[in-house]
Amino acid sequence: MTKLANYLEGRWQEGSGNGSPVLDPITGETLATVSADGLDMHAAYDYARQQAGPALRKLSYAERAALLSDIVKVLQANRDKYFDISLRNSGTVQNDSSVDVDGAIYTLSFYAKAGSKMVEKALRLDGESAPLAKDNVFASQHIYVPIQGLALFINAFNFPAWGLWEKAAAALLSGVPVVIKPATSTAWLTHEMVKDVVDANILPAGALNIVCGRPDALLDALNGLDVVSFTGSADTAASLRDHPRIKHDGVRFNAETDSINSAVLGPDTDDDATGLLVREVVRELTIKSGQKCTAIRRIFVPESKYDAVAQAISNKLKTITVGDPRKEGVRMGSLVNLSQRDAILEGIEKLAECSDILFDGRTESTIDLDNENTAVVPPVLFGVRNPDDHPLVHEMEVFGPVATLIPYRNTEHAFTLTRRGMGSLVASVYSNQPDFLAQAAATLAESHGRVHLINNDVAKAHTGHGNVMPQSNHGGPGRAGGGEELGGLRALRFYHRLAAIQGSPEVLGKLAQEAGSES
Ligand code: NAP
C-alpha cells in the first residue's frame, strides 16, 4: 500500500503511523493512505518563507509566468494518468474528470499567458497618484507589493486538480510560495500533480509544498503575514476563522463555501429560453454527480411553466445512465465516498418530508452497477409549491445530484426568493428579453458573485452555469464565504499588500519605474 509522502522543506517526508485510507468509491479498494503525523510544520513554513519566497521574488512577473507555462507542459504530458486517478478515486466519468483536470490546465495556461504580458518587475501600481498638497509637491500613490509570507490552501474534495492550480497560479505568479493541504478523500490526484511538477524541477526549492492529512500546527505555525485560502463547507470555515492566527493575528483568510445557487427562467413564455434552462439544469444535476459548489440547487420558473418544466427535466434525466464510470454508456458516475452518499441520502430524506418528488432516479434511472454498496446516487428533482415559507429549500445544500423546482408569481417574487440563498456563487437567468436579463443582473449582483445571462444569441457560445472561468470572479457574499478568487489579474490582489506611499512626485516617479510604468 502506497503511503503518500508529504513534500516539505524541499524533500519528501512520510508521516508516521498507518494513516487514513484513500478509497475507490465503487470497489471500496484502498488506493493509498495519507498521514501527516509527526511533521514539523514550523520548520516547513520557515523554509518556504525564507528559501522559496526570496527566490520567487527575484524573478519578474513575466519570468514567473514562464514557470507556469512549464508547469502546464508537465500536466499536459501526464493528463491520461490524471484521468485514470480521477476515475478510480473520484468515481467520475471522462467528461467530469475533464472539468477538474482540463479546467486546471486551462486556468494555469490563462495565468501563464496573462502574466507573460505583465511589464512589472517587483510591484504593481494601483491607480494614479493623487495630490496631497498645493502644486502637487506632495502626493499619494497606492502600490501593491507581493506578500513575503506563504499561502496555505485548504481544499475541498471535489476539485483535487483545479482546486490546487486555480489558487497556485495566482500565488506563484505573485511570487508567493504555496502549501497545499488537499482533502484527504481525494488527495491522490493533487499529490501526483505536485510530484510530477517537483520531479520536473521547475520551481525554486520550497515554492510548492504538499501536506496530506491533518498535521498538528497546520494553522498554529502560520504568522500574521501569511495568507490562507480555504474551500469547503461553511462549518469548517467558521471553525478555522476562530483560530487565533486568523482571529487574533490577522492572517488574511479567503473562504469559498456552501452556496444555494439558482437558475431563473424569465417571465416571457419562450420555448427557446425554457429549453436552454432545462438543458443547463440537467447538466448541473449530473456533472460530477452534482458535487460542484456552483451547481444549480433551486430552479425558479413562472407558475404557468411549472408542470411543463418538471416534465421536460424529468424526460431528459430518464435518458441518463448512472453507475460505474468504467462501464460503457454510463454518463453519470459516483459520489466521492460512502459518507458523502449517506449525507446526500439523509438530505434527500429531509427534503422529501416537506417537498414533492418530481423525478426519483433511484426508481426511474437506468443504473449500471455490479456491486450494491457503492457511492452512486442517481439524480432527484424536488418541487415545492410554498417557497415563501418552505423550511429548507433556501437553506440546505445537498451536495449531490439534487435540485428543487420552485414556481414564482412575478419577477419581484423571483428575485426575492433567489436572494433567500443569502449569498451565492452564481445565478443563471434564461430569457430572450434583453431588458429582463439586464434587470436581473442589476438586481441579483448584490447577492451573487457571478450572474450568467443566457439568451438565444449565446446559446452555443456560453461557458455554462457551473463552469468557473479564470476571466471571471469566483466567490460570493454571505453564506458563500465572502471570498473572491480568479477574475483575471484581480486574483493577484490576495497575494499582495496594498500600501499608500506618500512622497514627492520625483520619488513616486521612481516607484512607477520600478513597476514598469511611465509615470
Ligand atoms: P470540508 O469538510 O469543509 O473540508 C474542506 C477541507 O478542510 C478539507 O481539506 C478538510 O480536510 C479540511 N478540514 C476540515 N476540518 C479541518 C480542521 N479542523 N482543520 C484543518 N483542516 C480542516 O468540505 P468538503 O466536504 O471537502 O467539501 C464539500 C463542501 O465544499 C461543500 O459544502 C461545497 O459547497 C464546498 N465547496 C465550495 C467551493 C467554492 O468554491 N465555494 C468549491 C468546492 C466545494 P480533510 O479532508 O482531511 O478532512
Automatic annotation (TrEMBL):
InterPro entries: Ald_DH/histidinol_DH, Ald_DH_C, Ald_DH_N, Aldehyde_DH_dom, PaaN-DH. Keywords: Oxidoreductase. It holds the Pfam family Aldedh. Transmembrane segments: none annotated. Signal peptide: none annotated. Residues 12-496 form the Aldehyde dehydrogenase domain. Coiled coil: none annotated. The keyword Repeat does not apply. PANTHER family: ALDEHYDE DEHYDROGENASE B-RELATED. This is Phenylacetic acid degradation bifunctional protein PaaZ. It comes from Neopusillimonas maritima. The lineage of its organism: Bacteria, Pseudomonadati, Pseudomonadota, Betaproteobacteria, Burkholderiales.
